[in-house]
Amino acid sequence: MTGEPTAEQRRVLSRAEAGSGLLDGPASVLAALVARGLAVRHPRPPHRHFLTPAGQRLREQLAALAAHSPVPRTAAATSGAFAARTDTKSVESEDPARVREVRSAWAGLLEMRRLTNRAHAVDRPCDWERSHLVQAAALALEAGVGTGYRVGGTAQPEAVRVDGARLAECAAALEAAGWQTSAHLDRRSGTRYLLASPRRG
Predict the structure, then answer these.
(1) Rounded to whole angstroms, how far apart are CA atoms 160 and 150?
(2) How far apart (Å, rounded) are the C-alpha atoms in residues 201 and 197?
(3) Closest by CA position to 69, among listed 126, 18, 146
(4) Which of 7, 49, 101, 190 gives a 20 to 30 Å CA spacing to 147?
(5) Spatial separation of the C-alpha atoms in residues 115 and 121, rounded to whole Å
């Protein structure tokens, strides 16, 4: 079977028991994992399914990605997980430890793209980024320009607003990360801002 595992297949695989590799899920999903070589069906009743070594490796990769993926600040506050900074306009300098965290989170996001995008493409955002637009754009900006931006949601689908004094640098960083941008003028404040959305295809 070709292509990457579907989201449902990855969810079932991620929930496998850590020690035994025992799987639980819909029969069609388990059969698909067997066809991909990620699971094996035990020949004796009750015919339970278990991860193969390849399935175990993919499960470990998905667990590592989940641990390093940027999460909303409300969740990060209670879990201690990494959170992309959505507002760095008041940050004067970059902390070396923070730079390392951002570098690690960005590497994890690229790996998530490789595992979940078609043809292992890392040059365009993945489904996680499309469902977490502000956090994904913030990570791309923090990895690309460091400080001096603010990212917020908009009424437009699949679009975020970026404010700051370094809009040209922000646009370049986002476009290098697989986003498309356009510059606009806020008629009320007279300031310029960017609209950014994940590039498709």
Answers:
(1) 10
(2) 13
(3) 126
(4) 190
(5) 9
User: Distance between CA 70 and CA 76 in Å, rounded?
Assistant: 9
Report residue 188 CA to chain centroid gap.
34
> Model-level pTM?
0.64
Neighbours of 67 (CB within 10 A): 11
d(CA 96, CA 101): 9
Q: Each residue's pLDDT tens digit in the chain (201 positions)?
A: 556 778 788 888 888 887 788 999 999 999 999 998 899 998 888 889 998 988 888 888 777 666 555 544 433 433 345 788 899 888 767 788 888 888 888 888 888 888 778 888 899 998 889 888 999 999 999 999 999 999 999 988 899 999 999 999 999 999 999 999 999 999 888 999 999 999 986
d(CA 167, CA 148): 9
- Alpha carbons 172 and 41: distance in angstroms, whole number: 49
Q: What are phi and psi of 3, to 5 degrees?
A: 85, 175
The first and second tokens of residue 79, run together, are 């879990």
User: Looking at the DSSP assignment, which residues form a beta bridge with residue 161?
Assistant: 152, 195
Three state DSSP letters for 158-180: CCEEEEECCHHHHHHHHHHCCEE
Q: How is residue 142 written in tokens?
A: 């923090």
Contact between 96 and 53 (Cβ < 8 Å): no
Tokens of 13: 């695989």
